[in-house]
UniProtKB/TrEMBL annotation:
It comes from the Bacteria. It holds the Pfam family CMD. Keywords: Oxidoreductase, Peroxidase. One of its GO terms (molecular function) is peroxiredoxin activity. The keyword Disulfide bond does not apply. It comes from Stenotrophomonas acidaminiphila. InterPro entries: AhpD-like, AhpD_core, CMD-like. SUPFAM superfamilies: AhpD-like. This is Alkylhydroperoxidase.
Length: 118
């Protein structure tokens, strides 16, 4: 795992790097956007719960970009540090040692976006 300067920079860079895909793979990107919107829409589970699930999967799959985007969304949705840490416990339980390492990174992302908002 390489050092990440900040999750704010990482998410901005990923968004910028997706520009060619939005242009040259517009149908795929629009389809992914529609899937995301449908999956995250409030239903039996609210949006915050769904974002907590998405973050746990990002931790378990060791996806740095996922940590940034979902931490930012969770801060926007008002997730508490307690909720976030409890979700990390489940992610570590399901993913073992590698997930523990990414849980630390996820917490750093959440704290970075919380500080920026507050």
């Amino acid at each position: 795992m390489s050092a990440i300067p900040s999750y704010t920079d990482l998410t901005r860079d990923i968004s910028r790097n997706l520009t060619p895909l939005r242009t040259h793979n517009a149908d795929v990107m629009q389809g992914f956007g529609a899937l995301s919107k449908a999956a995250m829409a409030a239903g039996a589970l609210d949006e915050k719960t769904k974002e907590l699930i998405a973050m746990a999967i990002g931790v378990a799959n060791r996806c740095d970009g996922c940590l940034g985007f979902h931490a930012k969304a969770l801060v926007r949705l008002g997730a508490t540090p307690e909720e976030f840490r409890e979700m990390l416990g489940v992610a570590v339980y399901m993913g073992g040692g590698p997930s523990l390492m990414y849980a630390a990174n996820a917490l750093a992302a959440f704290e970075e976006f919380s500080t920026a908002q507050g």
